[in-house]
Amino acid sequence: xxxxxxxxxxxxxxxxxxxxxxxxxxxxxxxxxxxxxxxxxxxxxxxxxxxxxxxxxxxxxxxxxxxxxxxxxxxxxxxxxxxxxxxxxxxxxxxxxxxxxxxxxxxxxxxxxxxxxxxxxxxxxxxxxxxxxxxxxxxxxxxxxxxxxxxxxxxxxxxxxxxxxxxxxxxxxxxxxxxxxxxxxxxxxxxxxxxxxxxxxxxxxxxxxxxxxxxxxxxxxxxxxxxxxxxxxxxxxxxxxxxxxxxxxxxxxxxxxxxxxxxxxxxxxxxxxxxxxxxxxxxxxx
Length: 286
Description:
Elements: E1 8-13, H1 16-27, H2 29-32, E2 35-40, H3 48-56, E3 60-62, H4 66-74, E4 80-85, H5 93-96, E5 101-107, H6 119-125, E6 130-137, E7 147-154, H7 161-184, H8 219-228, E8 241-244, E9 247-257, E10 268-272, E11 278-285
Parallel strand pairs: 1-2, 1-4, 2-3, 4-5
Antiparallel strand pairs: 5-6, 6-7, 8-9, 9-11, 10-11
Helix pairs in contact: 1-3, 1-7, 6-8
């Protein structure tokens, strides 16, 4: 049996990367001899993690109340590793500071850049050419802990937020599997982030460009804004808005097309994207 100080492992989060993490930790359970359980703090109707727990016999806890969740963690007495993957619960300082508890977290950007929420959106909106993921230790400050591992990827010129988020989830699962043994053995050569005290923190309520653009803006900037808030069927952000003929309209759909695809349609606007493409925007009144 592999040596580790962790007698208990708790995974908390939702979505694809959480499922991959939970599956890997489950596969390694016999090798390390820890107990394993999962917490769903944010409820999802089609939970892949709940299905994994049912199939593998992993204790499943649905704890949506923050105070109840904090109380659950506060009762932990044994050496415990908490793995936070796509999780928005902020661990209280009283928990983080306990010596017998270690918490690691996945962040979908290259810390210390883009801390906080919806990092893929801000990366696209700000025109970055490269981004990546970070697994880091959790401290009392949000996204401030020492870095365990990072992986990088390019940001394509046409990539949408949901596409980039998916690519980052794949990287997160890959990085977790690579460094799990080091975390369990407490032999990670963690790196300090080295950020400025006044660095920008991105909040969940913030929307790129405040959710509004002008038709006088560069079409490339409008296209970048629309891609930055595009999470497909997941309504992370409200529809983007602009003014047209003295009235406010909202964007229903958009796509990059070639000039030969241009058609005169009601409620459709075309903007030039260089010499060989157009930005097609379908809109309606607010």
